[in-house]
Amino acid sequence: MELKDRLLTIAKEIPPGSYPVDVGTDHGYLPAYLVKQGIVSRALASDIGEGPLLAAKQHIEALSLSDRIELCLCDGLTGIDLSDKTHIVIAGMGGETISEILLRRHPLTQTLLLQPMTKVETLRRFLLKHGYRIEKEIPAYEEKKAYTVMLARYDGIVREGDDFFWTFGALPQSKKKEKYLYFQSLLSRLEKKQKGLQKAQTQERTELDRLAILIAKAKEYLQEELYDHHSGNL
To answer: Which domain holds residue 82?
Structure first.
């Protein structure tokens, strides 16, 4: 079995012997991979849709893994016994949706592995506000798009953030070279938004100033990464 980069990045963060829950499992690719590779001996896969869960069931049965992967038709984590679970994976959803799923079972003591497709800033704000520490973010690059995988744990400490953190998170600390591509993607999006506001001759001076600061910081970071790359440190 092979996984694309988003799910493979998550799989690499799940240590041997774990008992993960894959929320919104779709075809069940991640839990099937983890069990098939011998990384975990069991897993739980959930989805809110009957169609995706049926697809997961068929995929898991084809691999003869039905006795080791439990399937659950449910909304998020609703109704799931988490007492013996070690990791909660929520990937491929918007940041707001992920936040809502987490909030309904808050606080969660399991390790969280989260991969938002949109509203990444919203998810970072939620985690810090509700006492989750974002221990690291790992960039993933798939089909010419950049994503981040967040690893977070609950410690009950409410943390403050700033505009740079909400936008770029803990990615600067990542050692993967894909973070350069991620920053390029974010910079492109920020510049596009800036040009749109300028073209509309908006009076949102505060927002334009905010974007200008973020763009300058992103460019400075990219220049530092290029220097490290040419120096052989990337």
So the answer is: 5-159
